[in-house]
Amino acid sequence: MNHGAHDMAVRCSMNMLWNTQIIDTCVVFRQWHIHSNLQFFFSFLAIVALGMLYEYLRVFSKDFDKRIGVKLRIQSGRRTPLTASGQSSPERHGDGAEERGLLNGLRVARKQGFAVPPLYRALRAVLYGASVGLSFFLMLVFMTYNAYLIFAVILGAAVGHYILGDTIELNGPADKGMACH
Fold this sequence. Notes:
Layout: E1 25-26, E2 33-34, H1 37-76, E3 98-100, E4 107-109, H2 118-142, H3 147-164
C-alpha cells in the first residue's frame, strides 16, 4: 500500500495560550505559514516593519492635519478657527456654545474649527482607514499568542516611535499611542 500519494499537508498550529513555537506557525492567514527558522526570521522582520509603518501613519496623519489647518487658516485670512457660531473669537458659556443632546438632554459642546474641504476629508479618511486597518491587523498578529511575534509588534512600534517621535508639542493634544482603534 503506497501512502506517498496521501502526503498530509502540514497544518497551521493555532495556539490560544502563550507560546514560543516557530515551525508551523501561521500568521493571520493560512498562506502565511512558517515552515522554517529563516521564514520565521523574515516574518519577524516584516512584523517589525508593519509596527513601524503604523507609527509612520500616525505621525504622517497628525502632520497632514496640521498642514491642512495652516492652509485653511491662510486661505481664510484668520488666525483662529471658527467657533460654533461662526465667530473667530471664543464664545462665552451660555451664549450658544452648547446645545442639548437629542436623546439624553445633556449639554454637549458644538464642534469648533475649520470646515475641511471634501478632498482633504477624503485623504484624511484614507489615512485613518489605513491606520485602523493596520492596527487591527497587528492586533491579530498579537492574538497568535506567540511571544516572538508579540515582541515583533512591540519592537516595531517602539523603534518607529523612537525614529519618528523626535519632537514633542507641549500645547498639543495628548498622543493616543498604539491602539486597535
